[in-house]
Amino acid sequence: MGDFYQNGIITTLHNLRSRTLEDLERELIEFSKVRPMSLVLPSLYSELEAPALKHIVEELKQVPYLAEIVIGLDRADQDQYATALKYFDELPQHHRVLWNDGPRLMALDDELKEHGLAPREMGKGRNVWYCFGYVLASGKSESVALHDCDILTYQRDLVGRLIYPVANPNFNYMFCKGYYARVAKSKLNGRVSRLLVTPLIRALKKVCGPSDFLDYLDSYRYPLAGEFSFRTDVISDLRIPSDWGLEMGVLSEMKRNYATNRLCQVDIADTYDHKHQDLSPEDAAQGLSKMSTDICKALFRKLATNGEVFSTEKFRTIKATYYRIALDFIESYQNDAIVNGLKFDRHSEEQAVELFAQNLMVAGAYFLDNPMDTPFIPSWNRVISAIPDVMERLKDAVEQDTRDFFRS
């Protein structure tokens, strides 16, 4: 049973287990008549070969209220793209697969590069950005949800609960973040949120002083969740990072563009599990090591835009404060695990904190050495201003790919 406590400065919508899936979907069908809905699924081709996505597709086949499903496909050659078209053809909803590595979309990407408007690196941020562009180009929806394709515990009420706050025409929310307990296989997961983001935010509050922005971030129960939803018109002015800072970057943009009473979070799953990244202490360019560095850089950049001044000495103080707070959190999590009969490996938890503390300094040094770094992908409004017909061309490229490579 979820609690009803409202903490922080954004609204929390709980799952109090008081309604059925049928009742939820019946209401969403009514909403769809005045506020059509889309779903974005950023995917690697390798996820088509894993059981999680197959189950997600089976669940989505039963969803009655979606006007469109947009799949962003990365790391796929021509034959794999054709396979993906067949794979997703089971979906009864109108759907399109963006072949991000295909010649048509790559040609458009090259033109954007000439204008300095293309995403700088491959990855989820780039995939999501192009999917959002297609959602705008298709014009089929007024609200859009996004979730990952590796959710092992997926049930279709997840997307229903996720999109409900921005689809309900009687609500004023422009953005909704999903949250859930990261507990699976009798252990606590979500190490980067538990052991990096929350203790780092608390450390920054101590070192940098009171901050509306840090209070705002601290209001989210699971800030790194890959599930969120928007009113579609939010997308036009949204700038997102192309690296692992995507989720934190989106939260920052929402705070910059909207009053907090137009933002919310919602409990979308009783249980949630997906593929886990390795800690990768031996390779800073992989796994949770890279993720932690990118997240720290995203936080430091945002605080700098709010007027915070950083130095090497200040980063050392932040590291020391973070380390102490993170160790205290480990104690709390260990006791929580014991009360609930969960396994807890304190050694591996402290190893993660040590790596995150090290990467905090790496991120700080990078920030000081690259003060002009602008990792955000430009907003679609800016792209349209530079290339007025880009939406039509993006949509045409996707439609031509579909016609040329679909094998019925």
Rounded mean pLDDT is 92
Give the CA-CA distance, first to last residue: 47 Å
Shape: globular
**How do the SSEs run, as a string of H and E?**
EHEHEHEHHEHEEEHHEEHEHHHEHH
What ranges have pLDDT less than 50 throughout 5 or more consecutive residues? none
Count of distinct strands: 12
Q: Which sheet architecture does the biggest sheet show?
A: 8 strands, mixed
Strand order of the largest sheet: 1-11-6-9-5-2-3-4
- Report the radius of gyration as a whole number of Å: 21 Å
- Multimerization status: single chain
Computed structural class: alpha/beta
Number of helices: 14
User: In percent terms, what proportion of residues is strand?
Assistant: 5-15%
Outline of this structure?
By secondary structure, this protein is an alpha/beta fold. The chain is built from 14 helices and 12 strands.
Structure in words:
By secondary structure, the protein is α/β, with parallel strands linked by helices. The model has no long low-confidence stretch (mean pLDDT 92). The protein is globular. Helix content is 50%, strand content 13%. The protein contains 14 helices and 12 strands. The strands form 3 sheets. Strands 1-11-6-9-5-2-3-4 form an 8-stranded mixed sheet, with helices on both faces. Strands 7-8 form a two-stranded antiparallel ribbon. It has a two-stranded antiparallel sheet with strand order 10-12. Helix 7 packs antiparallel against helix 8 (212-218). The chain has helices spanning 21-32, 51-60, 78-88, 103-114, 124-138, 157-167, 191-208, 212-218, 246-257, 287-305, 312-339, 346-369, 380-386, 390-405, and strands at residues 11-13, 37-44, 66-74, 95-99, 143-146, 175-180, 183-184, 187-188, 228-231, 240-241, 263-269, 376-377.
